[in-house]
Amino acid sequence: MCGIVGLHLRNPELYPKLGELLTRMLREMEDRGPDSAGVSVYGDPTWSPAGSAGISLLGISDDPVSVRAAIAAALPGAAVAVRKLDGTYVVTSDGDLDALVTAARAAYPDAVVAGFGHDVTVLKGVGAPRALAEAWGLAGAQGWQGVGHTRMATESAVTPSGAHPYAVGPDQCLVHNGSFANHATIRRELQRAGMTFDSLNDTEVGARFVAHELEAGHGVHEALTELTRTFDGFYTLLVSNADSFAVVRDAIACKPAVIAETDDWVAMASEFRALAHLPGVENARIWEPEPEVIYHWSRQEVPA
């Protein structure tokens, strides 16, 4: 079942309200996915300070002071900060992103990297989405883009690492409602290409496939076109990075989705009730995305 929400803000005056708007969207989807949830927030000045590199880690039991010391030891000369948001540790540094990821993996080899980049913060956890949003302080977050997911598990265990979003490339994330029928075959192909996986979730296979396509130099539209040619099953996907926001459904559009657009924002959700509170929604263009049509918006575009 699962619930997807996403909000891409065009109007900078709304950036301070991103977390407030995203929290309400996530809460509306709680009954579609009550067992776990996750969000990706782009551009929060506290969680992802301008000019910094950041990484989100799961599966750490140390206190934040110890985590900062362990990672800073491998980054001489760099300023390192650590915040614990419920079960997610958000680590930022004024140094190089690859160096930060390497240092974090060396210090905590058993931890799961939930996300990394210069603009994104990824938070994931088990439990009711409403409670998780409160524990993260999501309503106070700021930024230009947010993606959320509420999970009703049908593939793999109910764990923080099994929650969406899957953010396996720099400033990238993917959320998914549905199932991929041939994910095991594609997983083996990606493993032969050198990829490793953090979970048995079929969604992670889709995320790593898209990340592989982007790393090869393809654009988001090309990557999702290749995904629709490669994956079998029923799905609605929302894929985002620091510059864009994209939605695609399977060939028969089995899983529900609705998109709304104004000059101030673009939003997507599994059901309209998650969009009903957005400012100016009464004047929005609202539609159901067509099968296998890729809808894609970027920060550089000028609203019509």
Please render the helix and strand layout as text.
Blueprint (H helix, E strand, L loop, with lengths): L2 E7 L8 H11 L7 E7 L10 E6 L5 H9 L7 E6 L2 E6 L3 H11 L4 E6 L2 E7 L2 H8 L8 E7 L21 E8 L2 H10 L9 H14 L4 H11 L2 E8 L3 E6 L8 E4 L3 E5 L15 E3 L7 E4 L6
Antiparallel strand pairs: 1-8, 1-13, 2-7, 2-8, 3-5, 3-6, 4-5, 9-10, 10-11, 11-15, 12-13, 12-14
Helix pairs in contact: 2-3, 5-6, 6-7
Q: What does this molecule look like?
A:
The protein is an alpha+beta fold and 304 residues long. The chain folds into 2 domains: 3-48 and 125-298, 4-Layer Sandwich (Glutamine Phosphoribosylpyrophosphate, subunit 1, domain 1), CATH 3.60.20.10; 49-118, Malonyl-CoA ACP transacylase, ACP-binding (Alpha-Beta Plaits). The protein contains 7 helices and 15 strands. It has a 7-stranded antiparallel β-sheet, covered by helices on one side. A hairpin with a 3-residue loop joins β10 and β11 (244-249). α2 (64-72) crosses α3 (97-107), α5 (183-192) crosses α6 (202-215) and α6 (202-215) crosses α7 (220-230).
